Amino acid sequence: MRLQTVTLELLSRLFRVEAKFRLHRLAGASVFAKAKDRLAHVMQRFISLLMLAHRDMAATEDLRTLVFMGTYNGKAWIEEAVRSLQAMEFTNWHLLIVDDGSEDLSPTLVRQLANQHPEQITAVCVGSNSRPVSNVNPALDWFLERPEFDAFCILDQDDIALPGMISESLRLMSPRVQVVRFKATRFNADLTQPIFTYAAYSQLLIRRAVIERVGKRIDRGQSMPTDTDYLERIERDAMQNGQLVVLTHHVCQHMRVTGANCSLNNGSKRARRLQQWITNAS
Predict the structure, then answer these.
(1) Greater confidence, 260 or 178?
(2) Contact present, 95 and 67 (Cβ < 8 Å)
(3) Given this structure, which CATH class describes domain 51-281?
(4) CA dist., res. 5 & res. 239, Å (int)
């Protein structure tokens, strides 16, 4: 136990360094900024791998988890995303679908899914698109109003959940780990060709206490991208509370390239590859 305590304290110090790199890196795509971001990513991988040795610290493997899916004109993908959740061995989840004023048949589809699986799925359809308000905020309110849920995560309408997305991520949680970042792989539109694997900014498994402290996400259209801002607030909260944010050692989601991806315009090599895929697809 003494060795475990010392190891976790070392990991906490490593996380503080890693998070400060992420929080304080220079804006833009300078060589220095890229080097800092790369070093932070390597350190996060190291921290997460070491955390695997501490997975038995607390019984967190069956936390009741709310999965949020925001839909907008996504009829072509929604059913496949829902089926990927239903295929998981982990069953202690509930899916909240909020349709954000779609102009296609998405509202009809999500209502049908909720009617077919009332124990698994709740559907909420709003009359008009909520932009610039972040469509995650109503889901966070819904989550906080229901104490039966212990953890919160997101599955986008055009993404696929892999079998261990929730169960393996929960195994990484402990009293010192209250947030787990999902590793994801970007694919082309029909999921036949992987582009790159990365640590997602918005796909996080978050414990209730963290959400209660951190609050809601900023509105879309602000100078700081919503996902980046929220992750930075979460990492800052972890440092203030002596906790860690870890990255999964496995890929959790297959994510399609879409024109709405927030990282398209940050000037990075990754953004150029995404833009090239969209150009080729069109």
Answers:
(1) 178
(2) yes
(3) alpha beta
(4) 17
pLDDT per residue as tens digits for the range 37-73:
677 777 777 777 776 666 555 556 789 999 999 999 9
Reported pTM? 0.83
In tens, the pLDDT along 127-164 reads 877 777 778 999 999 999 999 999 999 999 999 999 99
Q: Where are the domains of the chain?
A: 51-281
Q: Give the separation between CA 203 and CA 161, rounded to whole angstroms.
A: 11
Which DSSP string corresponds to the chain?
A: -HHHHHHHHHHHHHHHHHHHHHHHPPSS--HHHHHHHHHHHHHHHHHHHHHGGGTTSS--TT--EEEEEEESS-HHHHHHHHHHHHTSS---EEEEEEEES-SSSHHHHHHHHHHH-TTTEEEEEESS--TTS-TTHHHHHHHHT-TT--EEEE--TTEEE-TTTTHHHHHT-BTTEEEEEEEEEEE-TTS-SEEEEEEEEEEEEEEHHHHHHH-PPPPTTSSS-HHHHHHHHHHHHHHHTT-EEEEEEEEEEEEE--TT-GGGGS-SHHHHHHHHHHHHH-
